[in-house]
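seq as requested:
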Amino acid sequence: MSWLRALLFNIAFFGVTALLGVAALPLLLAPRRVVMAFGRFWARCVLALAKAIVGLDGEIRGIEHLPSGACLIAMKHQSAWDTLILPVVLGDPACIVKRELLLLPFYGWYAARAGSIAIDRTAGAGALRRMIAAARPIAAQGRPIVIFPEGTRVAPGDRLPYQPGVAALYQALALPLVPAAVNSGLFWGRRSFIKRPGRITLEFLEPIPPGWPRRQVMAELEQRIDSNGAREMLGRSHLRRLRAASLDLHVVTPPLQSSPIRA
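struct tokens:
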């Protein structure tokens, strides 16, 4: 059944993406905000398909930790779901993405026109300078800037070193740094055909104020994100063990004070 649901979702996903992508091509000539609004509409459509076909939903915690103006959000990256939810939750974010993504048909065209910041990961210090230069006017507009500190999707429980880009932006822009943890990889894995039913959690954690030394802020950022992710995985693993231990066990969890996604 999971395989069939995943097949139906993928057919619907690519079909809707192609249909909307072709129909909205004239919008690439429109103002940036119009293109971003279309991106939010497309993302909501895909999230609605995931909920209707797969049974995969999501909830957002910690909205109160997001500053009202510009900020830097360092988010764990596990799944394509992460990039879908960002415009829905944040409204008008600027995401830092690898340059190759902007070459993809439809997604890349609209992401570039909506104001994403492309980075060439092979260009070293020059790439950091160009990234900071591109981020300054975005911060001046009051838009949130999202960066994935490990630089790529990482499976739940795995770790990669945090890249220097997040510290470079934090020091150059002097913005609050909001850690964000997500467990999307438990349901929608990297390059995984199967999407599993359940509820993905995205949590924004307490911001780190500007002005911390580079080494201190990086250690604090990693500790907050990874400890939150570890708690989420431990809780789900414990619940699975309890359910497996007894077929008669009924586990009741209290409702969370969080914001469900309205796709």
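The first strand starts at residue 56 and ends at 61.
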